């Protein structure tokens, strides 16, 4: 079974600075997807960014980018120019490429933005 | 507006009672999912449905039941057999159960057992 681990329960960053959230995962599969979800205080889950394992290029969405290290099974999220609206819980998630769309989530990292 | 609705937002239940959480989507998605979220933990999959009249157990199905009689609806019943039902419950859907499809989430229901 796949597992996802987020070793940082809480992180904080100054507004306009850059922060990196860590995620590692364990799988025996070679093809899969990885995701970062944001859960603000409203508790609505919002997809931030996704990465296909077969793509070597790291995904980027505006201020959000990932560092995907397949051999190390590492998938970190970098948030540049942090904004107050980025404050939320962030979850890393894994999904197999084949079969049903079962997401496996990490424990989450609570990100605080200091003005 | 297309999306996923969950009701109610807050639900209180006495011990020993069954309770049903509603999830409706108007996205015309085939697949639907139920997740449970506890404090300090990520989401865990309870049940999922690939298509109408079909559903499969997830990782923590004990004490829960579901039905999928209509494409747009996937209600979750928390039975008295669920030992620790107090949690936040999230429903999600995707276009299909396989392939490169994003899961969209509802706003969630907070269940508290008194």
Question: Overview of this structure, please?
Answer:
- The complex is a heterodimer of chains A (115) and B (114).
- Helix content of chain A is 0%, strand content 52%.
- Chain A has 115 residues and is mainly β.
- Chain A is globular and about 45 Å long.
- The N and C termini of chain A lie far apart (41 Å).
- With 114 residues, chain B is mainly β.
- In chain B, strands 2, 4, 5, 6, 9, 10 and 11 form a 7-stranded mixed beta sheet that branches. A 4-stranded antiparallel beta sheet of chain B has the order 1-3-8-7, with no helix packed on it.
- The N and C termini of chain B lie far apart (35 Å).
- Classes of the chains: A mainly beta (115), B mainly beta (114).
- At the A-B interface, strand 6 of A face strand 4, strand 5 and strand 9 of B.
Please give a handful of descriptors for the protein shown.
heterodimer, A: 115 residues, mainly beta, 6-stranded mixed beta sheet, 4-stranded antiparallel beta sheet, 12 strands, globular, B: mainly beta, 7-stranded mixed beta sheet
Structure in a nutshell:
With 115 residues, chain A is mostly beta strands.
**What oligomeric state best describes the polypeptide chains here?**
heterodimer
Roughly what is the average pLDDT of chain B, rounded to an integer?
Answer: 92
Strand content of chain A: over 45%
Mean pLDDT of chain A: 94
Query: N-to-C SSE series of chain B?
Result: EEEEEEEEEEE
Number of helices of chain B: 0
What is the radius of gyration of chain B computed over CA atoms, rounded to a whole number of angstroms?
13 Å
H/I helix tally of chain A: 0
Strand portion of chain B, in percent?
Answer: over 45%
């Amino acid at each position: 079974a796949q597992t996802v681990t987020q070793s940082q329960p809480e992180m904080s960053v100054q507004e306009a600075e850059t922060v990196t959230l860590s995620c590692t995962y364990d799988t025996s599969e070679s093809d899969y997807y990885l995701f970062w979800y944001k859960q603000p205080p409203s508790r609505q889950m919002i997809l931030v960014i996704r990465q296909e394992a077969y793509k070597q290029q790291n995904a980027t969405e505006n201020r959000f980018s990932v560092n995907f290290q397949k051999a190390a099974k590492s998938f970190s999220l970098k948030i540049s120019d942090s904004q107050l609206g980025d404050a939320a819980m962030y979850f890393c998630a894994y999904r197999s490429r084949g079969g049903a769309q079962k997401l496996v989530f990490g424990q989450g990292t609570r990100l605080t933005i200091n003005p | 507006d297309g999306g996923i609705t969950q009701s109610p937002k807050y639900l209180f239940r006495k011990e020993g009672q069954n309770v049903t959480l509603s999830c409706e989507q108007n996205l015309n998605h085939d697949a639907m999912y139920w997740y449970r979220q506890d404090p300090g933990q990520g989401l865990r999959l309870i049940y999922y449905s690939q298509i109408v009249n079909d559903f499969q157990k997830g990782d923590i199905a004990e004490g829960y039941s579901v039905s999928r009689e209509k494409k747009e609806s996937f209600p979750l019943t928390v039975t008295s057999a669920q030992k620790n039902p107090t949690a936040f419950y999230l429903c999600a859907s995707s276009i299909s159960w396989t392939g490169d499809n994003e899961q969209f989430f509802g706003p969630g229901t907070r269940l508290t057992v008194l």
